[in-house]
Amino acid sequence: MKSGLKHKTKQWFSAENRRAIALYLCFVVVATMLWFVKVLDKKYLYTLSVPAQYENKPIDKALLYHLPKEIDVSVNTDGLTLCKYLLFDHDKCLHFDLSHFSQQERSTLEMEHYALLDSLLNDMTILGTQPARIVFAFQKISSKRVKIASALDLQFARQFQLATPIVLKPDSVTIYGAKQMIDTIREVFTVAKTIANLSGKSTYTVALQGLDDIRFSDSLVQVLIEAEKFTEKKYSVPITFINVPANVVVDLMQNNVILTVFIGLSKVEKISEHDFKAVADYRKRNTTTGEIPVEIIAQPPHGSIIQQNPHNVEIIFEEI
Question: Out of 119, 170, 238, 261, which residue is the most buried by the measure of CB atoms under 10 Å away?
């Protein structure tokens, strides 16, 4: 059996078979090259996304409109030129010198006929661009002070919660830009970031989220976070009935709602059932079951309600 297998192997790698295999591979290579040349010689319609970079921004002027971050260019070109661009030139940028355009209050640039774009896409026929034109409009820079808001995701260690509202230093920032842009901005935010395993007092330095064509007086803010251990406490809160018609006498079947609250240890003695307010609105009565939802319309700023019993109350009423 083994000798037969060896014999077949010798036949397969005989000189005659090796010549046939080499000739076949040669034909495959030649055919592939011919196909490749044919493909590269064909004309193609293709859309390129060309990154745009804006340099030398004037410090005393602001842009009225946001400028595009890339230009989509429709081209007609041969496969070889397109292949060379996609392989070697795809990371090239279209540069705009804003110090040149800012010499006028407003100027419009037709992208299809822009010389720098034509030189970047050498040997390609430009059929159109999106956007078709870029408007460079400038005005004297304006400024105003706005509040800073947190976009942080705070995650606390086991049995800890926020003891006091987080403190941002500074709590506001001066923004600079075109008046019509900054007039729409009411606040700016920190970067969206997760801070995990919080316990006790801690301070973090966090960056502000940037805005296109807007400059900030500060780019960093300090965040002061105070976490403390919490405990669970129950409060019995009287239910107040509201919006009862004058000709109706109501008798609640249950006069109190029990609230289970997570509260910081330092706040336990400072909170009582009088800091909560629970109401049952007669107008929200379920006409089928007669039940009315119990709503908590006031509670202290510290602590969070994790359980409420009951959520609905039954009533006995009679018309006068």
Answer: 261
Q: Choose among 134, 63, 60: nearest CA to 94.
A: 134
Q: Residue 267's closest CA among 232, 303, 296, 224?
A: 303
Strand order in the sheet with 43-55: 94-97, 43-55, 70-78, 125-130
pLDDT at residue 79, as a whole number = 76
Domains and CATH numbers, the chain: 43-140 (2.170.120.30), 142-229 (2.170.120.40), 230-319 (2.170.120.30)
Check residue 259 and give its pLDDT.
95
Residue type, 262: F
CA distance 144 to 129: 37
What is the pLDDT, as a whole number, of residue 294?
A: 94
Q: What is the DSSP string of 111-175?
A: GGG-HHHHHHTTT-EEEEEESSEEEEEEEE-EEEEEEEE---EEEEPTTEEESS--EEESSEEEE
Contact 190, 207 (CB under 8 A): yes
pLDDT at 30: 52
pTM (predicted TM-score): 0.63
Contacts of 294 (CB under 8 A, 6+ apart): 239, 257, 278, 279, 280, 308, 310, 311, 312, 313
Residue 29 to residue 35: CA distance in whole angstroms: 10
Helix, strand, or coil here: 73?
Answer: strand
Q: Quote the DSSP letter at residue 211.
A: B
Please list the rounded mean pLDDT of every run of 10 residues in the chain (320 residues).
49 59 58 50 82 89 89 86 78 88 89 84 86 91 95 91 90 93 94 93 95 92 93 92 78 84 87 92 86 92 88 74
Rg of the chain taking only CA atoms, in angstroms = 37
